[in-house]
Structures are given as structure tokens and as C-alpha cells.
Design goal:
The protein has about 475 residues and is mostly beta strands. Helix content is about 5%, strand content about 50%.
């Protein structure tokens, strides 16, 4: 289909250039029953009002094509509420758990054989921890199942449904607690019984919470969008046993790191008060708070100056922590710092060149590479932490979904194929024909990848190089 569109575009271009194609004759001549006549001079192809050609082409790689070990029909994720589009299937313990006919099913990842079926009219949400699956009934009552047998361990009598504009709903299991977050409300359930321990709401959030929740040393952290002089994010801390709010800090984002009883968090509020477009001066400020009390224990400002002339529109980008190092986007650079709040005026340990373009978003660090996503075309670019070298991973068709597991990068492409690439070498390894166009997350378990196409799963055995 992709090549067909190119051919059609080329034909249109020839017509617009004033060269109608008449096979075997000069332009303007017509033969009927052996008589040659001249076409009327005003005859021509109708010109389009707008015509744009994408000159970017993909070179098709010659790689081994693997056949799926199995295919199974499942509920189409495109028909689901977008809240559940990324949580309707998981792969664990050599099994795949997903939904068919609004029932939860378990498939053997190697053979695709159905192992068990549970429930009916379930909300298409499933998560896993320690041999147990957690999900939601149609009326949003959490339940727990034995992942091996599909037998119910419990179903809560508490519904976590809240009518809010924010549709995000997240299940987060820990060792002894199942947290369910919906908007600005947090539910804490006993992990063994499903009994509700406590429920807490942030009234200033007015239903607008994030998906962030983190538990550490008896404290639960969450963030919300609240109103102040400006709308900003707010970091809250709750007592894990009771749900009582311990402290909150307006303008503080989620924890970059929790270490030695301190919560490291970015101050997102004070930069809003600066003359952002006209001033070349930039800074990020990180505060360290006592986890239990919220008392400020230290701060560190990281400053830099934007080059060139105003307006400055791309000067304060992403910030993240990796192995006690802090990475901050600073215009066209990425600066690496020690995560240290004891010194002022800290200089970066080193800097890297940021990938070119305003639409490049920093996602994180994988395989010692800063990973960037192009927001226009969803392609990935990497910066090696070892030497700052830029690396790219090319496919041979526009991409719908990319997933990375260890050294394997899996590109589900919009030409009916999935292309697997060795992330370290950048070389393609194999492809799989899927006959799909749009895809959900590619899963991996026990030496198999599971491709989620529209309304079906395909199980593919990985070669040794990518296991």
C-alpha cells in the first residue's frame, strides 16, 4: 500500500507538469480504427488545488523473516477506552494475560494455547506482582487472581470509580498494599484481602492528579495539579498506614530520587515567574526534603546562559536522574552533574550535544544512552554516555510503536511488518509479517515477543542474539 501511494503520486506529478500519458503515441494524438486525429487543444487533466509530496523514502532491509509461532484473536485495543489502551495485556512467567470477549484469558507464550479464562464484562486493565494478577471488574472493584491457575484470591467490595474529567486510573501493587489512583483520589487496599485501608483526596487538585505514586519507608508520595498564583504541580506525602497527609509543597514535582531519608524534587514553580522569552538566563532548582516531615534540608541551583538573541523558546528542557547523576537539557546541550546539594555554583562534569530539532523529547536512559523521541515522526535517537556520539536506529517504513528490551528494539511498522533491531549495533536482525497497521505495546517473556496488532496477538520466538 505504501509503494502504491508513491506510484499514484508520481502519476499526478506528471499530469500537473502538462505531460498527459498516452501509451505509444505523441501527446495530443489519438488513433481510432486506424484513423489518426488531433485531440482538442483545450483537453487536459484537471489540476489539483493542493498537492504535496513527501520525498522521504525508506530503504527496505534484507533480513530473515520469522514466522509467528502462533496467532490468537483477542479484544481489539482500539475499541477500548484510551485509559486502558496500554494496560490491557501483560506478559509474565512465560504467559500472556489479556482480554477476549471482555474476559481475562491466559495464553502460553510459546504455543498460544489458552490456559484459563476468568470473569465476564471486566474492565480491560491488568497488572502483575509476585505471581498474582490485579484487575478491575466492570464496576471498578479491584480483584486478585492466582496467575498460574486463574483462581480468584479476592474481590474487593470497594469500588474505585470516581466521576472525574480525568480518566486516568492506575493500579500499583507493592509488597503489602494495592494502590488505586484516580484523579486526585488515592485508595489503599490490603494486598492479601482487598479490604480498603484508607482513601485520601487532595481537594485543591479538583480531580486532577498525575499517574505518579511512590512508596518509601512508610511514606506514600503523589503529585497533583493545583491552583495558586499560577496552576502548578504539587508534591504530597501521606502516612502509609493511615492515609493522613504529612506534608505538601506547591510547585514541587515528583521525586527524582529518594535516598538517605531525603526526597529530591525539582522546583517547577519559580521558573514560571521569570521573563522566559526575553531573558537568556536559565536555571533549575532542586530541593531536598525530609521524607517524614517535609522540612527543607538543602537546595541546589543549576544555571546557564542561552546563546543568541531573544526570543528564547527552547532553553529549559527535561531533567532526570540516573545512577546518582543529574542530566539537564540546556538549550542545545545536555549537562551532566553530580546529584549533590552541598555545593553552590556546581559546574557540569561534562556536556553532550543535544540532537537537532525543537521536537526532540528526552525520554530517559537505556543501555547507557540518552534516548530522544522525535515528536513529529516518533523515531528514536540516542546519545552515548561514553563519548557523546549520536546514534540512530532506522527502520524501512513509518513506525506505529517502538519497544526496547535489553539490546532488542522492536519497531511495529505501518507497512504490515515488525522489524527487530540490535540496539547496540544499529543493525536489523529480523522481520515479522503482521498484516497490521496500528499496534499496541510489544511484550516479551521467556524468549518470546508478543506483537499486539489490531484484534490479535502474534507470538514470535526470539533468536539467541536478542533473548
Amino acid at each position: 500500500m505504501f509503494n502504491k501511494r508513491i506510484r499514484q503520486t508520481n502519476t499526478d506529478w506528471k499530469r500537473r507538469a502538462g505531460r498527459p500519458v498516452v501509451a505509444g503515441f505523441a501527446a495530443g494524438m489519438l488513433m481510432v480504427h486506424g484513423v489518426i486525429g488531433v485531440l482538442p487543444s483545450q483537453a487536459h487533466a484537471e489540476a489539483s488545488d493542493v498537492s504535496i509530496r513527501n520525498w522521504y523514502s525508506y530503504h527496505r532491509f534484507t533480513v530473515p523473516e520469522l514466522k509467528p509461532s502462533w496467532t490468537s484473536k483477542v479484544d481489539n485495543y482500539l475499541d477500548m477506552n484510551e485509559t486502558y489502551a496500554l494496560v490491557n495485556a501483560i506478559a509474565e512467567e512465560g504467559k500472556v494475560f489479556t482480554f477476549a470477549g471482555s474476559k481475562l484469558i491466559a495464553l502460553d507464550a510459546k504455543t498460544g494455547k489458552r490456559l484459563w479464562t476468568y470473569g465476564k464484562d471486566l474492565t480491560p486493565y491488568i497488572t502483575y506482582q509476585g505471581g498474582v494478577l490485579y484487575g478491575l471488574t466492570s464496576d471498578h472493584k479491584p480483584y486478585a487472581l492466582n496467575a498460574k491457575t486463574g483462581k480468584a484470591k479476592w474481590q474487593s467490595v470497594t469500588s474505585t470509580w470516581i466521576d472525574t474529567y480525568q480518566r486516568t486510573e492506575v493500579l500499583i501493587p507493592t509488597i503489602d498494599t494495592l494502590y488505586v489512583i484516580k484523579g486526585s483520589t488515592t485508595f489503599a487496599l490490603d494486598i492479601k484481602s482487598g479490604k480498603l485501608r484508607w482513601e485520601a483526596d487532595e481537594p485543591l487538585g479538583e480531580g486532577h492528579g498525575t499517574e505518579y505514586l511512590e512508596e518509601s519507608n512508610g511514606v506514600v508520595l503523589r503529585t497533583f495539579f493545583v491552583q495558586g498564583a499560577l496552576t502548578s504541580i504539587q508534591l504530597n506525602a501521606y502516612d502509609k498506614k493511615t492515609g493522613k497527609k504529612l506534608w505538601d509543597h506547591f510547585g514541587q514535582g515528583q521525586a527524582l530520587q529518594i535516598k538517605d531519608g531525603l526526597v529530591y524534587s525539582v522546583d517547577t514553580y519559580s521558573p514560571m515567574l521569570e521573563e522566559y522569552d526575553s531573558s537568556p538566563e536559565r536555571k533549575w532548582k532542586i530541593n531536598a526534603y525530609n521524607l517524614k516531615t517535609g522540612v527543607l534540608k538543602g537546595s541546589q541551583e543549576y544555571t546557564w546562559t542561552m546563546p543568541g538573541d531573544p526570543p528564547y523558546t527552547n532553553g529549559r528542557g527535561a531533567i532526570l536522574v540516573h545512577q546518582d547523576k543529574l542530566y539537564i537539557e540546556q538549550g542545545d546541550k545536555i549537562a551532566e552533574y553530580p546529584l549533590n546539594l552541598t555545593k553552590s555554583g556546581t559546574a557540569p562534569l561534562r556536556t553532550f550535544q543535544r540532537p537537532y530539532g525543537d521536537k526532540m523529547a528526552l525520554l530517559g536512559i537505556v543501555q547507557e544512552r540518552l534516548i530522544y523521541k522525535n515528536l513529529d515522526i516518533s523515531e528514536l535517537t540516542g546519545i552515548k554516555l561514553a563519548n557523546g556520539q549520536e546514534v540512530q536506529w532506522h527502520g524501512d517504513a513509518p513506525v506505529s510503536q517502538i519497544d526496547v528490551y535489553s539490546k532488542g528494539m522492536y519497531r511495529a511498522q505501518r507497512n504490515g511488518t515488525l522489524l527487530a533491531i540490535n540496539m547496540m549495533s544499529g543493525q536489523p536482525v529480523f522481520r515479522v509479517s503482521t498484516e497490521g497497521d496500528l499496534y499496541n505495546t510489544t511484550l516479551k517473556t521467556n524468549g518470546m515477543i508478543i506483537i499486539q496488532a489490531e484484534g490479535k496477538l502474534l507470538g514470535v520466538k526470539l533468536p539467541a542474539a536478542l533473548k
